[in-house]
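Reopening: Thioesterase still failing for me.
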Amino acid sequence: MQILETRVAPAWVDYNGHMNDAEYARVFSLAVETLMDHIGLDAAGRDRHRYTLYTLETHLCYRREAHEDQPLRVALTLLDRDAKRLHVFFEMQDAEGNLLATSEQMLMGVNRESSRPDAFPPAVAEAIAALPQAEPGAWPALAGRTIGIRR
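Support: Ran it again with your exact input. Result attached.
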């Protein structure tokens, strides 16, 4: 599911002439915000439900360089979910469909009054249930990676 379209802003380009590594994380953060809007946790929804999402963990892989003003598309795959967590996988591509980066994330639903993890509000849970979810064993090839030096 395509979740975000943007372009590489001039301020995102570093001394190497391509998008700085931190800016890839920014784009994936924008994708999380777009996902939140999609499931009813936009600004009004966060206030109404007194609920938000926190990022617990992220694993970002850089595959290709992105350059100033280059169009970017981010697609979302929902890998798993439970009553208060989302395990998501984002793929960033250029206009030609080349994979630029991936970000695998664990998101936690949090009650804003208690600042504690809590189950998704019913309307949000319903919107999440409507998201396309990858079947077990049919995850994207780059999902579920670990960091380590292979010997």
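Helices lie at 21-38, 43-49, 122-129. If you still see a failure, please send the error message rather than a screenshot.
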